[in-house]
Specification:
- GO terms for molecular function: acryloyl-CoA reductase (NADPH) activity.
- The protein is of the alpha/beta class.
- Helices cover 30% and strands 27% of the residues.
- It has 10 helices and 15 strands.
- Strands 3, 4, 5, 6, 7, 14 and 15 form a 7-stranded mixed beta sheet that branches.
- Helix 2 crosses helix 8.
Length: 330
């Protein structure tokens, strides 16, 4: 038997509760050839939407949420994994189309897992989570496009969020001069400690703007979407690029083709859910080599599995600061 946070649909409402389940129930959660003893998971914004039912994240009922987990292989029919191997999972529909990581056990396809880098513990991996992993993918996308520190300032929108905070730290570590956009001026000092050279007010980018604006940024990581992304594109320097990975302001893009045609800028979409295995391994190895995960872990909040529904609701209300690690065995 093992404990899991279970989401069930009752009268068009999402009801979350801790259930004690038999391992045989994992067979109904989807095809999987690896059984993992989960040690830690985390709460992301998408998890908050799923647990509270605020958005139709869950595609199959009942559902164990949790788009991330890190743990130890118990049994495996996959050639790449043996009992005792430490692994991490991000995305691949976990918590959406098949049972995810907010449980003490998970059965998943081995192709969805990657080996946990030796420098990182399972707890530290969840301090990083999908947020840090996505931020690294964004930094790698910009550099693959040819953006270098010598090209000029790099803007990070939504810099106080999980992805944004990691993006500031990663880009600064790689030598970029980072400008952080935030709507929380009281967090400016924390962003500077992460590596931001300057701060811009979120409101200066979040309202409708001109199709083509003053050239300001060599590149950007955008976690916001909508008018913010449109204004970022309109103010990129000639040949600049933006790695877009979020939609906190909205899914729309009220922009014109002017920046793309007249300035040759590039819009790089960054997905973290279905990234090929080789890129996942490269991103996590870069995190292990570059990101001070011990520091991140030290300032993260650790909660027991039973507290996840309450914290998920607070997360959506903007009442949670920093990363949340879920100790599924507490």
């Amino acid at each position: 038997m093992f404990n899991a946070l279970m989401l069930e649909k009752q009268d068009d409402r999402t009801v979350a509760s801790i259930k004690s389940l038999d391992e045989s129930s994992l067979a109904a959660s989807g095809d999987g050839d690896v059984l993992v003893r989960v040690e830690f998971s985390t709460l992301n914004y998408k998890d908050g939407l799923a647990i509270t039912g605020k958005s139709p994240v869950v595609r199959k009922w009942p559902m164990v949420p949790g788009i991330d987990f890190a743990g130890v292989v118990e049994t495996s029919a996959h050639p790449d994994y043996r009992p005792g191997d430490k692994v991490v999972l991000n995305g691949w529909g976990a918590g959406e189309t098949h049972w995810g990581g907010l449980a003490q056990k998970a059965r998943v396809p081995g192709d969805h897992l990657i080996p946990l880098p030796a420098k990182i513990t399972t707890r530290q991996a969840m301090a990083v989570g999908t947020a840090g992993y996505t931020a690294m993918l964004c930094a790698q996308a910009l550099e693959k496009h040819g953006v270098s520190a010598a090209d000029g300032d790099v803007l990070v929108t939504g810099a106080n969020g999980g992805v944004g905070s990691f993006a500031v730290a990663i880009l600064a570590k790689r030598g970029f001069r980072v400008i952080a956009s935030t709507g929380r001026p009281e967090e400016a000092e924390r962003l500077r400690e992460l590596g931001a050279a300057d701060i811009v007010e979120r409101a200066s980018l979040s309202e409708p703007g001109k199709p083509l604006q003053k050239e300001r940024w060599a590149a950007a990581v955008d976690c916001v979407g909508s008018h913010t992304l449109a204004n970022v594109c309109a103010s990129l320097r000639y040949g600049g690029a933006v790695a877009a990975c979020g939609l906190a302001q909205g899914m729309d893009l009220p922009a014109t083709v002017a920046p793309f045609i007249l300035r040759g800028v590039a819009l790089l979409g960054v997905d973290s859910v279905y990234v090929p295995r080789e890129r996942r391994i490269a991103a996590w190895q870069a995190i292990a080599d570059e990101v001070p995960v011990a520091t991140i872990e030290s300032v993260a909040t650790v909660i027991p599995l039973a507290d996840a529904p309450d914290v998920a609701a607070r997360l959506l209300r903007g009442e949670v600061k920093g990363r949340v690690i879920v100790d599924v065995n507490a």
